[in-house]
Design brief:
Length: 417
C-alpha cells in the first residue's frame, strides 16, 4: 500500500473540534488505501507556555529538564488524536519519540535526528493496519536514555524524517497557509501560490525567515529526496478528492519542475541593521579583528561589503546584522576600537533586505542587473549587494520595501498567472 506522512501544526490541532477535523482528514486518506503516519505538534500556544514556565522557574535551567517539560505538549496531542481516530472507527496508536524510538544526538533543545525506526512502523501497518500517531518535535538520546527536543518548529523535521524512514510517497504538511507564495500576499496582491518549488529554493526561503517550514526539514527532504507538500488544514476534508492532485505547494527535486521560471520568489526582511566602519586600516588581520568578537558575541553577520582602499591605507567596511542585535554589535565594535583601528562607526536600522531567489539564475546571466536598473528607475538606492548561485540580496532604505518588492515581482513576470 502507498504510504503517506501527514503532519499537522499547532493551529490545526488548537482545540478538540480541530483535532476531530484532523481525524477526518486522516480517515479520508486511510479510506483511499494509504498506510498513514501522522506527526503532530503541540496545541497552538502550548509550547510557548511550557517554555515560559521553564524560564519562570529558573532562568538558567538544565537543558535536559527543559526538554522533559517542552516535549509534553506533543504527547497530549498525539493521545487526543489517536482517541479521535478510534472514535470514528480508524485503528490508531500514539507514539512518543522515546517509544518508537526516534534517536537523536544529545544537543538538548536543538537535537538532530539520527534515525527513526521505520521498519517497526511498516511492520505495524502490515500486521495491525494501525495509523501511527507520532509526537513531533521530540526524540530519545540513546546513551543517556533522556528525552530530547529538536528546536522550535521541529515537528516539520520529525515528519520529514519519518517519511524518509518509511519511504513514504509524500510528506504532507498541513498548516494555516495553503502553500508557498511568490512573495508575501499582504504586500503584493498579485502574489501567487507556487505549484512547485525546488528544495534548494525552499531552503533559501526558509533560511530567509519564511515561517512555513523549519530549515532542517527542508535540508532533510533534500538529502533523502522526500517530496513535501505544503497544504491547508482548513479545507473541509469531505471536499477533497484523495485521488486527485491536492492543492498546495510541492517541494521537490528540480527535475520534477518542468516549467522552471528564472525567478521563483522574492523574500524581504525589515529586521535588518547596517553597520559601517569608516576608515578602517587596510591590512591583514583586520577582518578577523572585526568579525571575531562579533562571532564570540553570537551575532550573526550577513551581508558584507568592503570598499577598495583609495589611499592604500584605510578602507570602509559595511555589513548587516539582525536589528535586534544592532545595539550589542555597536557595543562590541566600540570596545574593540583600538584593536581594530578605525575612525568612525556609522549605522542604520531603517534598512531592509530584499532577496530574489530562483534556480534559473544558474544558467542566466544578468538577472540581478535587471533589478538594479528597475530599482534605479524608481529612485531606490542600493546600499549593499550580495549574490550566490541561486539568489541575490539587496539592502535598501526600509521606506521603499513595498515598492521594491512590487517592482521586482512584476519585473520577473511573477504577477502573471
Ligand atoms: N511545538 C513545537 C514548537 O512550537 C514544535 C512544532 O510545532 O513544530 O516549536
Ligand atoms: Mg511550524
Amino acid at each position: 500500500m502507498p504510504r503517506l506522512v501527514m503532519k499537522f501544526g499547532g493551529t490545526s490541532v488548537a482545540d478538540i473540534p480541530r483535532i476531530r477535523n484532523v481525524a477526518a482528514h486522516v480517515k479520508r486518506e486511510v479510506d483511499a488505501g494509504h498506510d498513514i503516519a501522522v506527526v503532530v505538534s503541540a496545541m497552538a500556544g502550548k509550547t510557548n507556555e511550557l517554555v515560559g514556565w521553564c524560564a519562570d522557574t529558573t532562568p538558567l535551567h538544565d537543558a535536559r529538564e527543559y526538554d522533559t517539560v517542552v516535549a509534553s505538549g506533543e504527547q497530549v496531542t498525539s493521545g487526543l488524536l489517536a482517541m479521535a481516530l478510534q472514535a470514528i472507527g480508524v485503528a490508531a496508536r500514539s507514539w512518543q519519540g522515546w517509544q518508537l524510538p526516534i534517536h537523536t544526538d544529545d544537543a538538548h533543545g536543538a537535537a538532530r535526528i539520527l534515525d527513526v525506526n521505520g521498519p517497526e512502523l511498516i511492520r505495524r501497518f502490515k500486521e495491525r493496519g494501525e495509523v501511527a500517531v507520532i509526537s513531533g518535535f521530540q526524540g530519545l538520546h540513546q546513551e543517556s536514555g533522556r528525552i530530547t527536543t529538536l528546536g522550535r518548529g521541529g515537528s516539520d523535521t520529525s515528519a520529514v524524517a519519518v517519511a524518509a524512514a518509511i519511504q513514504a510517497d509524500r510528506c504532507d504538511i498541513y498548516t494555516d497557509v495553503d502553500g508557498v507564495y511568490t512573495t508575501d500576499p499582504r504586500v503584493v496582491a498579485k502574489a501567487r501560490r507556487l505549484p512547485k518549488i525546488a528544495f534548494e529554493e525552499m531552503l533559501e526561503l526558509a533560511s530567509l525567515g519564511a515561517k512555513v517550514l523549519q530549515v532542517r526539514s527542508v535540508e532533510l527532504g533534500m538529502v533523502h529526496n522526500v517530496r513535501i507538500l505544503v497544504r491547508s488544514s482548513f479545507e473541509q476534508p469531505e471536499n477533497i478528492d484523495p485521488h486527485g492532485i491536492p492543492p498546495g505547494t510541492l517541494i521537490c527535486n528540480e527535475e520534477e519542475i518542468v516549467e522552471q521560471q528564472m525567478v521563483t520568489g522574492i523574500a524581504f526582511s525589515k529586521d535588518e541593521a547596517q553597520l559601517s566602519i569608516r576608515r578602517v586600516q587596510d591590512k591583514p588581520g583586520v577582518a578577523a579583528a572585526i568579525f571575531g568578537p562579533l562571532a564570540e558575541a553570537n551575532i550573526n553577520v550577513d551581508m558584507i561589503v568592503q570598499n577598495v582602499s583609495a589611499d592604500g591605507l584605510t578602507t570602509d567596511l559595511t555589513f548587516t546584522v539582525p536589528a535586534a542585535d544592532y545595539a550589542r554589535a555597536s557595543d562590541v565594535l566600540a570596545q574593540s576600537r583600538t584593536r581594530i583601528g578605525y575612525e568612525r562607526l556609522d549605522g542604520a536600522t531603517d534598512v531592509a533586505k530584499i532577496s530574489v531567489i530562483g534556480i534559473g539564475m544558474r544558467s542566466h546571466a544578468g538577472v540581478a542587473a535587471e533589478a538594479f536598473k528597475a530599482l534605479g528607475q524608481r529612485g531606490i538606492n542600493i546600499r549593499a549587494i550580495t549574490t550566490s548561485e541561486i539568489k541575490f540580496s539587496l539592502l535598501i532604505d526600509e521606506a521603499y520595501t513595498e515598492l521594491a518588492v512590487r517592482t521586482l515581482h512584476a519585473l520577473y513576470g511573477l504577477d502573471k498567472v
